[in-house]
Amino acid sequence: MLCCMPGVAFVPALLVSWSSAAFIISYAIAVLAGHVEPFVPYISDTGTKPPESGVFGFMINISALLASITMYIRYLLIEKQNESSHFVRSSCNMFTLCVGLMGCTGMGIVATFQELAVPSVHDIGALVAFGSGVVYITLQSIISYKSCPRWNTYFVCHIRMAISVISCIAFIPMIVFASKISMTRIDWTPGEKDYTYHFMSAICEWTVAFGFIFFFLTFIRDFQ
User: Fold this and answer.
1) pLDDT tens for residues 38-52?
2) Structure pTM?
3) Using a CB cutoff of 8 Å and minimum separation of 24, what contacts does 171-179 make?
4) Domain spans of the chain?
């Protein structure tokens, strides 16, 4: 199916399907192995211990690469459209790409440095990945509105902005609740100290992560 897609639409399609599989597969392995509780663990919790850590690291690194390629193609697409429409400054387009690539670098750090092995480096990578990702999709939403109605429909723009707003709203409590957790662990059980903070932060983290996935899903039509 991916090979039959016109243009380069297979790139964001592959990114979305691969990233979704990375989250789901590592989660399934971690739960079946008894390493995490099935009810809303952190994404990183599902890739901390072997064997899921190897699967998680490999697949997330590939996701980071696919995301980088998708962002670069998006940059080139906007540059080409901008030649005739002049709806955005080239410097703004380049800045948006750099922010996106910074987020991909953060993903690579998260995949390489496990949560329990090097927690400080892992947390920095996660902050860069999620923070840069939220900024990137917000800037892309603004650029999309500027390109209307020639290059985008307002319906698609509204969807992108809605995803951006939800991701931004979820990102803030994700950081706030995570900062209140006094210990680094993956085997959380309801009722223990800091569990509520962990639970709320984890929900927000999954919301932001799948917000990114749904946002890149909207690129498929553009890339055709």
Assistant:
1) 888 999 999 989 999
2) 0.94
3) 171/130, 171/131, 171/134, 171/204, 171/208, 173/200, 173/201, 173/204, 174/130, 174/201, 174/204, 174/205, 174/208, 175/127, 177/201, 177/204
4) 9-222
